[in-house]
């Protein structure tokens, strides 16, 4: 079973059978995450379309 950590809250995220560029949501904190790499597994927090990041 492939498991990684939510970069926002540290909750376990199960990514088995998921593909790169797939969008997930953390069940604990609700943040939307994108799988940006599978080897190693890397999740990136998605920004909202209306939100600007510096």
UniProtKB/TrEMBL annotation:
It holds the Pfam family Zn_ribbon_LysW. It comes from the Bacteria. Gene3D superfamilies: 2.20.28.160. This is Lysine biosynthesis protein LysW.
